Amino acid sequence: MIDYNNPKFVTFEGVVGCGKTTQSKMLHEHLLSKGLEARRTREIGGTRVAELIRDIVIYEHMLPYSELLLIMAARYEHIHKIIIPALTLNQWVICDRFVDSTACYQGLSDIGSDKVYQLHDEIFNNLMPDITFFIDVPPTEALDRISNNLDCNKFENEGLEFHNKIYQGFQAITKQFSNRIVRIEAAQLNPEQVHMKILQALS
Questions:
Q1: Which residue ranges make up each domain of the chain?
Q2: Is the pTM higher than 0.90?
Q3: Could you give the percent of the chain with pLDDT greater than 70?
Q4: CA distance linking residue 115 with residue 56, whole number of Å
């Protein structure tokens, strides 16, 4: 049984096209159907300012540290204006991407994933999700799912080699943070089947 009266900060991670956005929406709707207060949000974004920063980060090419610091600025707005207030009100928080995405994407540069987590810890006093779901779909299948629906931002425009590196990054941090990250094998499954796996994991 899921302890619905013990709200959690839940994040969803994975490569482009893995279905994490769909799953975050399905979990949010499930919680609302139980009469619970739940907030669904996303990164980069979640607030007006953070959404403006999002447009810069995903469409403009810049130096690695410039990109990372912009993401941290957006996260500062997001955490202090959305996430912490919701948790303080005893609400569930469901977030599409968080620091693990930053570690995998921006950590590809010379910065490295360890530096990303270190900076996150220093700025946000080690605020981490209670549970993170890594929706495990290989890039070949994930990209094929959305081949006609990409918005052509700079990350989605990257080739398969790039997305394979991101995928390998998620696999690595899933092992590194096995106490927090739950791997959901979602290849060849429909959204409802994946959703049921997530509910089972939450119990």
A1: 9-42+92-158+166-187
A2: yes
A3: 97
A4: 22
